[in-house]
What we know:
The chain is globular and about 70 Å long. The strands form 4 sheets. An 8-stranded parallel sheet has the order 10-8-7-4-3-2-1-14. It is built from 10 helices and 14 strands. It has 344 residues and is an alpha/beta fold. It has one domain: Alpha-Beta Barrel (TIM Barrel), CATH 3.20.20.30. The model has no long low-confidence stretch (mean pLDDT 95). InterPro entries: Bact_Lucif_Oxidored, Luciferase-like_dom, Luciferase-like_sf.
Amino acid sequence: MPSTPRPLRRLGFLTIGLFDGADPGRGHESTLEIIELGERLGFDSAWVRHRHLQYGISSPVAVLAAASQRTSRIELGTAVIPLGWENPLRLAEDLATVDLLSGGRLNPGVSVGPPMHYEQVKEALYPDTADVEDFGYERVRRLLDFVRGKAATDFSGVEGFEVFSDVVQPHSPGLGQRLWYGGGSLSSARWAGEHGMNFLTSSVVRAGGPEDAHDFAQIQLSHIREFRAHHPDGAAARVSQGLVVIPTDSATPEQRAKYEAYAAKRLPRTTAPQGPARLLFAPDLVGTSAELVEQLHAHAGFREVDEVAFALPFTFEHEDYVQILTDLATRLGPALGWRPGTTG
């Protein structure tokens, strides 16, 4: 039986933070301004994507450190950090530092797998160990252990004037319960649940193997239920959905035309699984809040969650994001049962 739509409890948004290579500072500043706007509008969370060797945020932890000093309430997340580019111990240090600076508002999302275009980048990234690096779940487990306070070394104590710890410092209590796994398959959902993580679902799932179907919403639903079936918190385990949702209530005619053209251009990829990995993409949702409520309530994945991080489109202008966020917070969110948070 289909589940019943529940009131939306937490509303967030996700941005890629694009910038012009000739003026990267302006793009980063725009991202920070968007996060500040999100807090003023009452959003519960703001998330940034992660892009390497592209014109998008390559260091989300650094960007969120800056955002933590310009906001006071909104939670700050990464969706997601690909761990194939990271040393888990060093990343654990950075995450704990930013979490403390933010007052415990950091929500790190991570994923596994080899870095994109690995054959072309491996000599720069891992010149001595490229052929033996492990890009599987073990990399996440190491990060979890370090963030949650398990020993990283068998040495601790005083040496001269220096004091050494056997666990990653600083340690931020509570951060270990705010780690998210960004997954698109049954196996990743199961692993995240078994290891007590939170689960990020997006607009991409894998359609291969036992999930060989073309119904995105039903595949996503199966992932959410698999995750909760294996999580210690069961049905209460946290899941956040991240579809591309673009309300047009206050948009100009030019903006509406741009948004509709963007969604139409991306629609063909949603009709069948793409590439060797058989990735299935969800259609972008564009329309008035009344139309979007109807579409979301009909979505099997959405009906299983009570928190979202709606993704902002990649290539729009700053003023477009202002309009979209404003409509999300003042029109669509309340229509879905959400109530804005308060700053302070």
